[in-house]
Amino acid sequence: MVVLMEINTTGRVTNVSLNRSSGHADLDRSALAAARLWTFRPARRGETPIAITVLKPFRFVLNRR
After folding, report:
1. What is the predicted pLDDT for the residue at 54?
2. Which residues contact 16 (CB under 8 A, 6 or more apart)?
């Protein structure tokens, strides 16, 4: 699955959406919820922080115990 993330000039995620679904609604919701909580070091153009949009792939792995 791939999540589209908009990140503002302070490094906070301001908007998330699915770019490509995993095919499972629960996994899609989990990825979107996780992405909303992330923070980043702001992107910069020279010394100036800028807002950006990025595509972030998510990969879920099932661990058997």
Report:
1. 97
2. 3, 4, 5, 6, 32, 35, 36
